[in-house]
Amino acid sequence: TLKALLVILLPVHPLWKSPVSVPGGTRQSPINIQWRDSVYDPCLKPLTIQYDPSTCLHIWNNGYSFLVEFEDSADKSIITVGPLECHYRLKQFHFHWGAINEWGSEHTVDSKVFPAELHLVHWNANKFSSFEEAISEDNGLAVIGVFLKIGTHHKGLQKLVDALPAVKHKDTSVEFDVFDPSCLMPSCPDYWTYAGSLTTPPLTESVTWIIKKRPIEVDQDQLEEFRLLLFTSAGEEEKKMVDNFRPLQPLMNRTVRSSFE
Ligand SMILES: CCCSc1c(F)c(F)c(S(=O)(=O)NC)c(F)c1F
Ligand SMILES: [Zn+2]
Asked: Ligand 1 — pocket residues by CB below 6 A?
């Protein structure tokens, strides 16, 4: 099918500048989560999320996605428990999406692709003194992945969507004073977790992934606003910011655990 052909061709997709595979990589992301192969771990507790909306700083277009960044000089917005042995500070969140609703997410579940995926990036403030240090260390980062599906309008997301025209071009930013990212979480506490990597350079294998089982719903107009962003700077020939996801990586010798039976 067209989709299969495109997925095969995707690794050489011109918009994907990073190496599709990392030499010697044994725990790369994203992966397909095969539900029946995931192993229920009764020791996995619900994730504890404590975000302080006033730590929100700004939104910026980094030429790959749009990032909402947070002030991380203290333990004000943190996640703990779940599969984590330490507390992790929220650094930023961003999204990956497709040109059309048929693809866009980085992870897949039983090979099902979602139109988009939210990543909330946290760093281990118990063990390291900065995000920059943690990014290349084992257990340095914890990323919550939330799938997006097309459905009802998402009121919390709309505040973010309304600010996107101000960051249309690469290297533009806009102040974003108060935002509580917990409004972007599905109500269901269930998740899968596995040891993986960043999906953008430097692709370091430092991430404990926490993938929420249930998606959140956004409406078509909201996702279309993502697709109006540009990879390019003002004055350059415009390239729409779409298909900013990495191809699936081999599971290799990894087990995906579930927090639910
Ligand atoms: C040099 C990193 C800049 S911050 C960042 C990011 F911008 C990003 F896109 C991803 S991702 O791999 O794409 N998604 C988890 C990250 F993990 C990050 F930490
Ligand atoms: Zn990401």
From this structure: 65, 67, 92, 94, 119, 121, 143, 198-200
Read off the pTM.
0.93
Which atom of ligand 1 lies at the shortest distance from residue 96's CA? 13
Residue 219 near residue 38 (C-beta atoms within 8 A): no
For residue 31, the one-letter residue type is I
pLDDT tens readout for residues 65-99: 999 999 999 999 999 999 999 999 999 999 999 99
| CB proximity list for 82: less than 8 A, separation 6 or greater | 44, 45, 46, 47, 48, 191, 193, 210, 259
Are 11 and 170 in contact by the 8 Å Cβ rule? The answer is: no
Residues paired with 116 in a beta bridge: 97, 148
CA of residue 151 to ligand 1 center, whole Å? 27
Whether ipTM tops 0.90, in short, is yes
Cis peptide before 30 (omega within 30 of 0): yes
> Does pLDDT of 19 surpass 60?
no
Locate 182 and state its tokens. 């917990």
Distances, alpha carbon 222 to alpha carbons 22, 100, 164, 251, in Å? 34, 13, 10, 33
- Cα(242) to ligand 2 centroid in Å equals 13
Residue pair 122/135 in contact by the 8 Å Cβ criterion: no
Q: Which helix (H) or strand (E) holds 66?
A: strand 66-70
Q: How much is the pLDDT for 5?
A: 62
Q: What's the average model confidence in pLDDT over 22-34? A: 93
Q: Which atom of ligand 1 is nearest to the CA of 94?
A: 9
Atom of ligand 1 at shortest distance to CA of 145? Answer: 15
